[in-house]
Amino acid sequence: MADVVLKNVRKSFASVDVIKGVDLEAGHGEFVVFVGPSGCGKSTLLRMICGLEKITSGQLLIGGEDMSDVEASDRGTAMVFQSYALYPHMTVFENMSFALRMAKTPAAVIERRVHRAAEILQISHLLQRRPKDMSGGQRQRVAIGRAIVREPKVFLFDEPLSNLDAELRVQMRVELSKLHNEIGATMIYVTHDQVEAMTMADKIVVLRDGLVEQIGSPLDLYTSPNNRFVAGFIGSPR
Ligand code: ADP
Ligand code: MG
């Protein structure tokens, strides 16, 4: 059973159709990448999966359970945003533990999870710093750490590396792949960067104007794109 299943999912804002009937699955432990041009609906799909937006119609299952009436906080998902969205007045430790404190998680459990996540992300030495005293890459690690400590079944990443410089992007790409191997959770990752998609994905979902153009492994899409749009996006010669 796939961890995340969308069946004919649609989303309209007022009378504008933004997601026009999307079917897709993310298998347990799979690294699924959504690619497509700006405005095609990638963020809207993520926001519906994590519960920040309601679906207009269709069906959304996580862990086999219909999510229609399940609050964002109870879905077993955690989202990492592009713009970090850290609390500036809190230390790294406080930022990473905030959601757990809100959920009344015991202090000893919080300690253990934050230290473990900090270790994975190599930010153990930064736990008492505040965001303004850190680099962009370090802040992005904190944002990822905030998701890890919640131990979600499904991680959702919305262009997490797009604010970083090229060199750091390459480094973080490798580290995120390592993180995925280490914790084995299902990950859905949005990017408009073809190289990120091709190097990180088990499965790529190519989106265009609220619809799926093609789903396949990086190799599938490269060697047999369905059409010129997919070929152009993936960078294969056809
Ligand atoms: P992407 O992340 O692929 O760039 P988005 O999911 O952010 O695309 O947006 C898809 C479309 O939905 C865009 O045309 C955007 O303007 C529209 N949209 C997104 N959120 C809203 C909203 N809250 N109200 C109205 N339109 C929205
Ligand atoms: Mg977006």
TrEMBL record:
Keyword Nucleotidyltransferase: no
Location, primary (coarse class): membrane
Domain ABC transporter: 4-234
Locations listed in the record: Cell inner membrane
Keyword Nucleus attributed: no
Keywords attached to this entry: ATP-binding, Cell inner membrane, Cell membrane, Membrane, Nucleotide-binding, Transport
Membrane topology of this protein: Peripheral membrane protein
Domain of life: Bacteria
A GO CC term attached to the entry: ATP-binding cassette (ABC) transporter complex, substrate-binding subunit-containing
GO molecular function, one term: ATP binding
Family per similarity comment: Belongs to the ABC transporter superfamily.
Identification of the protein by name: sn-glycerol-3-phosphate ABC transporter ATP-binding protein UgpC
Gene that specifies this protein: ugpC
Full protein stretch here: 1 to 238 of 375
